[in-house]
Amino acid sequence: MEENRKFVRIEWPVIIKYKTIEEPRAQDQIVGRDISEGGARFIVYERLMKGTKLEVQLEVPFDSMPLFAKGEVMWIKKVGEENAKMFEIGVVFKGVSQNDQKRLKMYIENEIKERRKT
Hints:
Strand order of the largest sheet: 2-3-4-7-6-5
Strand content: over 45%
CATH architecture: Beta Barrel
Order of helices and strands: EEEEEEEH
Distance between the termini: 30 Å
Radius of gyration: 14 Å
Number of strands: 7
Helix content: 10-25%
Shape: globular
CATH class: Mainly Beta
């Protein structure tokens, strides 16, 4: 099956902080599995429902200024042992400032260029 992605997705260990918008709880901090200009895939330790709205903060390597986005859980799948509370989720970014969108695009493009050099 062919994937039709709008944005290039790369495996990149960005630190992601998130909290749900509907029921704000303590913010979790995890390391993302992969990221694109349009979304991210990462592990969470709570069962979120598809459609859950999130506030997301991305901390990219080599920059002290985080990126902010609003996102929505598009899919969720259980990972790990049966009684482990680990879930992998895919989040699509719905609200990113123009400035943060440009920065994210630049970071991803630079990371791809660096990887091609090696």
